[in-house]
Specification:
The protein is α+β, with helices and mostly antiparallel strands and about 120 residues long. The protein is built from five helices and three strands, in the order H-E-E-E-H-H-H-H. It has one domain: Sufe protein. Chain: A, CATH 3.90.1010. The relative contact order is 0.23.
């Protein structure tokens, strides 16, 4: 049902936790399914230097959050702003059609966090 990369991100989450001194923090809840995702990040010299996530929800939501942190770490703000939901889905090896909301939740919380950063 789930791809090997998705299960790996779920079982071995990358960058889990929270940055105490984050430059930006955002939390979003999906009102339909109840998944909650919190993202904290630090920016240095126009790049995301550190990123952490906390998630409560379904397997795909947690895996997509983990994959998102790998996609944005070390990238410039310009590169990060060009990410799409499909990039997150590809990073976890695909998700069932009914679980695409998990990738969208990751993108929504990333957008909310990026709005807090002065360019």
């Amino acid at each position: 049902m789930y791809s090997a990369p998705l299960l790996d991100h779920f079982q071995n989450p990358r960058n889990a936790g929270e940055l105490a001194d984050a430059d930006a923090a955002a939390e979003i809840q999906n009102p339909v399914c109840g998944d909650v995702l919190r993202l904290t990040l630090n920016v240095r010299a126009g790049c995301i230097s550190e990123v952490r996530f906390k998630a409560k929800g379904c397997v795909p939501a947690m895996a997509c959050a983990s994959a998102l942190t790998e996609l944005v770490a070390g990238k410039t703000l310009e590169q990060v702003r060009m990410l799409r939901r499909e990039d997150v889905i590809d990073a976890v090896g695909g998700v069932p059609q009914a679980s695409t909301h998990a990738a969208q939740l990751s993108m929504d919380v990333l957008s909310a966090a990026l709005r807090q950063i002065k360019s």
